[in-house]
Amino acid sequence: MSFFTSSFYSLAQKDTLHLPSIRIVNGSIPIPFVSVINVTTSKSFISDAEGFVILPTFTKGDTLLLRSMGYEDVFIIYGQQIGQTIAMEESPVSLEEVQITSNVVPDVGSTEGLKSLGVESIGKGVAPGNTAELLQKSGQVHVQQSQQGGGSPVLRGFEANRVLLVIDGVRMNNAIYRSGHLQNAITIDPNSLEKVQVILGPSSVRFGSDALGGVVHFTTLKPRFRSKHSEYNSSALVSTQYKSVNNSINLYGTAEAGGERWASVVAMSSSSFGDLKMGKWRVHGDPLWGGIYSYVDRRNGVDSIVENSNPSIQTPSGYSQKDFLHKLRLGIPGGAIETNFQYSISSDIPRLDKLNDISASGLKWAEWNYGPQERLMTAVSWEQYLGIPGSLHTTFAYQNISESRKKRQFGDALREIQEELVDVISLSSVWVSSPFRGDGWKFEAGIDGQWNDVTSVVRAEDFSGITVVDSGFGDSLLTRYPNAGSDMLSWASFASAKRNSGENIYHVGVRYSHSAINASYIPTSALELPFDEIHSSHGALTGSIAAEVPLSLNTKTTTSLSSGFRHPNIDDAAKIREKGGYVLIPNDSLRAEYIYSFDESVSWDITPRLSVNSAIFLSLWADMISPVAATLNNESQLFIDGEYAAIQRNENLGNAIIKGARFEINAQILKNLNFHGVANFTKGTRLISQTPISHIPPMFGRTSLEFYKKDWSIEGFVLFNGVKNIEDYGPGGTDNPQEALLTGTPSWWTLNIESHFEIYKNIHAQVGLTNLLDMHYKTFSSGI
């Protein structure tokens, strides 16, 4: 449940008052990223990581609203003088308060106004099935799906290992994050999220490598110390959800408790997803596209092709998943220590885009599943507040990631299983200066490092699960990654500064990153490489500079220049895999790739009830890594998975230009009626050939109309995608042209209605109608 309460502070009776800074706390613990809104002028500010916020001069009669998720609203009004510390009381957090937001930037080297995408609250409606769906519902992140148990975020035309995923300050990207499509985001339980930040482009010097397209930073539930009005703080939440589109059931529970110097939160969820239904209104005009007319079922010990009685049900696509989270926070003199344990495991996840592949004799695959996807993370964070020098934040983390691929061709007696195990150890430490300097400057500096160890094995098993071909060498099975092991070491240091000069804000940041990979092969009869080791090491100096300048009382512009760097990982340099008639082989001479980006945005508050935001960007992608035709031992084809496939390997292929724009409008039509709309445009081409590059989504966005009252709300929203013509697809199979029509991916839109209401004091309900008009569609590059 949740409550709305508020507290009031008063300020001294003067015509004007200037507070150099105030600090917002809960007890003795600072509250970061609090929104401070001048209700009178509609201007807003954000507190930093230590709870400090610098306020400009304001006049008699102004009212300030302090708001942060999980805390009661606080109003500061003109009246009595207050001190430099303001306390906020905690309030229980319920599921409907989970929202995606990115109107704050975690480091001062980023460009707040441009890189931080204001993604509206969507948690008031029906909870999403997974985290990828949460991002897609915002209308501001394009998501690719190869299967129901997946979801690959696309930022500015970059995807997978070129988008950095971060959870609670810990990098998720590891040595085997691939360049195609990635489903690792679904290992985060959306019910356990407090917020999601989306930082567009490479401007964040804190996060560094991999963030060519941007950063998606997930923040999970936070342990909360007790309120000063109670001996201890405790709450619990239990929820259940059913969706008819896939007969899914989600059970979720969370419990939290806290004293003056300790706090704990536990969250658990269990989800079961049945086969996904597709819409029947085929506006595109093709009566057959996407239908599942037959599938393979093993009956009486024999593979059989079974006619699907309802081709609109995508059989098989169902899976299940369980998630667990526990955090413990302890207050210490001048700071806090927090432990963070997370675990996620799925069932086998069917690759529907593979299971519909056709061979000369019919359906090619009897089985093609991702095996149980496991993610374990344990982290310890230490926050120490140093007074005038600032504060220090240090996090040590260990991650264990396990994934596998299970495939068996139709009629075969054995299934091949490739298993990958990644261990990641990381350390990061960030110093942030105090805002009490009095000169308008704020500084930040830090170091971070990660070590990845990759183990890759392959085996074959019979229907009883007994291994009949072990992972010994000399057989015909191929591991996905180097069979003698591989590792990756990355480290970096960064510094950034922010300057408030009157109404102008300036940012500058610099980062040096260095990465190295090592891989070893033992020759097999299936593949003879011209080398048995890969050693690669690259470093880069990148940075960003930006200025936020008001053009008028209600209009401001933000301009930035930034650069980014990505070192090839084990997946880029050392992977062996077949897809779409091509087989990718390792390359021991890959170089790093870079991006140089220019951004411009304008924010215009036309009236207190109407605002418009627009942004454009232009990026040069240099030394881009992309697959090209290659030979191995003077052969252009390799026999794999029962067929010959054309050989490719990753190369640095020159440069490309990516450009785009974003438009957003927010309007309060009536007192309780709000409108929001956003549209995104991206285009990418190679510089010399002027041919399209992969991963570039068509125009997409969201419009919504929300009516809300004290105890209930209802929202209607439309998600939409433009057409993606086949001639605009990138080369090779990355964009999955085989999953589209011959002309490409048609445009589509869905009408959706969601409502939240309070039935009784502690009982809430959420009801939603998704794809109300039963539109048939596929998002660009998706297989489901």
What attributes does this structure have?
4 helices; 55 strands; 24-stranded antiparallel beta sheet; 784 residues; Maltoporin, Chain A; Immunoglobulin-like; globular; single chain; mainly beta
Short description:
By secondary structure, this protein is mainly beta. Strand 3 and strand 4 (29-30) form a beta hairpin.
Integer count of domains: 2
Helicity, in percent? Answer: under 10%
Overall CATH architecture of the largest domain: Beta Barrel
Q: pLDDT average, as an integer?
A: 85
Number of β-strand runs: 55
Structural class: mainly beta
Distance between the termini: 36 Å
Could you say which overall geometry the principal axes of the C-alpha atoms support? globular
- Radius of gyration, in angstroms, nearest whole number: 26 Å
**CATH topology descriptor of the largest domain:** Maltoporin, Chain A
CATH superfamily of the largest domain: TonB-dependent receptor, beta-barrel domain
Describe the protein.
With 784 residues, the protein is an all-beta fold. The chain has 2 domains: 1-91, Immunoglobulin-like (Sandwich), CATH 2.60.40; 233-769, Beta Barrel (Maltoporin, Chain A). Helix content is 3%, strand content 54%. The protein has a 24-stranded antiparallel beta sheet that branches. Strands 1-10-9-5-6 form a 5-stranded mixed beta sheet, with no helix packed on it. Strands 41, 42, 45, 46 and 47 form a 5-stranded mixed beta sheet that branches. Strand 37 (486-501) and strand 38 form a beta hairpin. The longest helix is centred in the N-terminal third of the chain and has 7 residues, at 131-137. It is globular and about 80 Å long. Mean pLDDT is 85; it is low at 1-19 and 92-123.
